[in-house]
Amino acid sequence: ETRGIPWHRAVIGGFSMGAVMSYAVALGEGRPSPAAIVALSGFIPTVDGWRAELEGRKGLPVLIHHGRDDPIMEVGFGRAASETLKRGGLDVTYLETDAGHWVPPEPLPRLAEFVARAIPAPAVGDG
């Protein structure tokens, strides 16, 4: 018997290139939809042979944070991802702070609330 976190209860997320990989995994063609996406200081990949599958993901919760002073991943990447996903019908929460290429403490309470809403406690017998 295989046990693990069911895909519909998984929040896929990461920072920097981890955010890019999170978009790739969570939005790749033919993949099931996760519970939510958290993308911190990243961008939606633009590589040959891959495209974001937004159809059928209407309402998928996405939290994006990006620092305005990020010298590694310019803030425009976060803004562009937010707009692309909103146009695709995903439920985007976009947070921007004065941070550089790090996650400051200010968005952490929102991030915790976001994850708690995305994966509420399972019902009895819902493993």
Write the layout of secondary structure elements.
Layout (H helix, E strand, L loop, with lengths): L10 E5 L1 H11 L8 E5 L20 E7 L7 H13 L3 E7 L10 H11 L9
Parallel strand pairs: 1-2, 2-3, 3-4
Q: What features would you describe in this structure?
A:
With 127 residues, the chain is α/β, with parallel strands linked by helices. The chain has helices at 17-27, 75-87, 108-118, and strands at residues 11-15, 36-40, 61-67, 91-97. Strands 1-2-3-4 form a 4-stranded parallel beta sheet, sandwiched between helices.
What descriptors fit this protein?
4-stranded parallel β-sheet; 19% strand; globular; alpha/beta; 127 residues; 28% helix
Q: Number of helix segments?
A: 3
- Spatial order of the strands in the main sheet? 1-2-3-4
Q: Which stretches of 5+ consecutive residues score pLDDT under 50?
A: none
Instruction: Name the helicity range.
Output: 25-40%
Instruction: Characterize the largest beta sheet: strand count, sense, and whether it forms a barrel.
Output: 4 strands, parallel
Tally of extended strands?
4
Briefly note the structural class of the backbone. Answer: alpha/beta
Outline type: globular
Mean pLDDT: 93
Radius of gyration: 15 Å
Provide a short characterization of the protein structure.
This protein has 127 residues and is an alpha/beta fold. Helices cover 28% and strands 19% of the residues.
